[in-house]
TrEMBL record, chain A:
One of its GO terms (cellular component) is cytosol. It catalyses: RX + glutathione = an S-substituted glutathione + a halide anion + H(+). It comes from the Eukaryota. GO terms for molecular function: glutathione transferase activity. The gene is GSTP1. This is Glutathione S-transferase. Coiled coil: none annotated. Belongs to the GST superfamily. Pi family. Residues 83-202 form the GST C-terminal domain. GO terms for biological process: glutathione metabolic process. It comes from Oncorhynchus kisutch (Coho salmon).
From TrEMBL, chain B:
It is an enzyme of class 2 (transferase). Residues 77-196 form the GST C-terminal domain. PANTHER family: GLUTATHIONE S-TRANSFERASE. It comes from Oncorhynchus kisutch (Coho salmon). Residues 1-75 form the GST N-terminal domain. It catalyses: RX + glutathione = an S-substituted glutathione + a halide anion + H(+). Belongs to the GST superfamily. Pi family. This is Glutathione S-transferase. Homodimer. One of its GO terms (biological process) is glutathione metabolic process.
Length: 208, 200
């Protein structure tokens, strides 16, 4: 079926970006879906380097940590910039996306009822940073002139935020255009239209 | 480079020292920072910032990776690079927990944090013990090693016995501390005078 296998729970969660990236890069992959009750028994967890999922298998090579997986895919599929300087900037942007993702996840899992409105109100103070970089680069990508793993990660986190608040990109034209163009890339469009994508909830607690 | 505590610059400084690099420190006064002029120029409105020649970079782990690329501390091939990334991300997870406790829960949460610490340290112990070289991945220090070393130094200040049940980590800290350039740096006034965290 292809070189990659993802082992994860039945959600988009921290596998959202890597799946979109693999789809866009023309990769097929196998999904091993872990039932949460089985996970709590602990056998699989004990084999995971940090006791966590997701896990990516590339041939016989097992890798954990979602952003390490994105970087590995970036190396494999020429999506890590054209030189060291671009690589560093891509790293920086992906770390910035991770900071936003952490805030989002905290709100979703810990503060949804009490904190959702405050989160949405504060969101422009974070999105403006990505808008500025996207607008300045002018290529439609964060760094360089083709998608990097940071773009896939940003795209995925923005899709989740649009579910949370459909108007959240209205004041950010470069980000809005970015989402539209990424969504229209043929392999991404096919993936986003697929049952495999649509049937999975974004998060594990049903909140979005 | 800019900072006002050891904080998120601790690992990069140790790495640069060990790699025989000299660097300039621009220390930002927190009151000045709150005025906002410098903050507005930072890509994410945050420090630290590294300047490499005319190239400005933010995000402490991106800086570590950049240094890793510059100084052959990113593994010998793609597989080692991926494992180093994974380990550095694991250190970051621990660092986030530590920072949260330090800044938000020190008085109420310190004891619980210390009690729970073995459940996190054991993961690093297992990798270190399995690799057998004295480093997390491969046979020489990567940026993940410098990051782990630094976070362990901070934890030893928090709880001096926290590595007693983790012989590979204890040996790792001892050996890293004994590397000549690191030893010189850790003995320096530049290192010793900076508090670890911004809240004391």
């Amino acid at each position: 079926m292809g070189r990659y296998t993802i082992t994860y729970f039945g959600v988009r969660g921290r596998c959202g970006a890597m799946r979109i990236m693999m789809a866009d890069q023309g990769q097929e992959w196998k999904e091993i879906v872990v039932d949460f009750a089985d996970w709590m028994k602990g056998d699989l967890k004990a084999t995971c380097v940090f006791g966590q999922l997701p896990k990516l298998e590339d041939g016989g090579f097992a890798l954990y940590q979602s952003n390490a997986i994105l970087r590995h895919l970036g190396r494999n599929h020429d999506a890590y910039g054209k030189d060291g300087k671009e690589a560093a900037l891509i790293d920086m942007m992906c770390d910035g996306v991770e900071d936003l993702r952490l805030k989002y996840v905290k709100m979703i899992y810990q503060e949804y009822d009490t904190g959702k409105d405050v989160y949405i109100k504060d969101l422009p103070n974070h999105l403006d940073k990505f808008e500025a970089v996207m607008a300045k680069n002018k290529t439609g990508f964060l760094v360089g002139d083709k998608p990097s793993f940071a773009d896939y990660s940003l795209f995925e986190v923005l899709l989740n935020h649009l579910v949370l608040c459909s108007s959240c990109l209205d004041t950010f034209p470069s980000l809005k255009s970015f989402v539209e163009k990424m969504s229209a890339r043929p392999k991404i469009k096919t993936f986003l239209d697929s049952e495999a994508y649509k049937q999975l909830p974004i998060n594990g607690n049903g909140k979005q």
